[in-house]
Design brief:
Helix content is 63%, strand content 8%. The protein is built from nine helices and three strands.
Amino acid sequence: IILYAKYPCYNYFSLAMEDLRQHICFNIGRVMRKVYEHYESRLAPFNLTAPQYMVFNALWIGDGITIGELGQRVSLDGSTITGILDRMEKNGYVERRQNSEDRRSALVFLTAKARDIGPRILHFADELDASLRSQFPAKDMAVFERVLRGLGEPD
């Protein structure tokens, strides 16, 4: 819309790909689609999605935690985590147990099924990292990771 107002000869819907690539958000979106494709193709046989895989990894590091703690680990809000856990519970990967220290909350645990497939899927993140790192010099990747972490920090 801004381009159209500034340059009336531009048709808003016919922006060239090169114009869109000037925007950080557009490029982040393109990269995220590739990341999701990487995970989705590998996780489909296990009936897991990329967000579920993030939660799976966080619980693999240590389960028996509250939904709030889990949300902090993966940087997602409680309602989003609850939806992910609902689907994972339906597929037999997690279970929620009442917290004996606080009856108002539940603790989240991986199931035996999850522990069985864990060794077969946990390497997917390392696989993607190695693939990305192999395309660029280590010095460039260090800068990229620092910038990426900075962008992800809360305001």
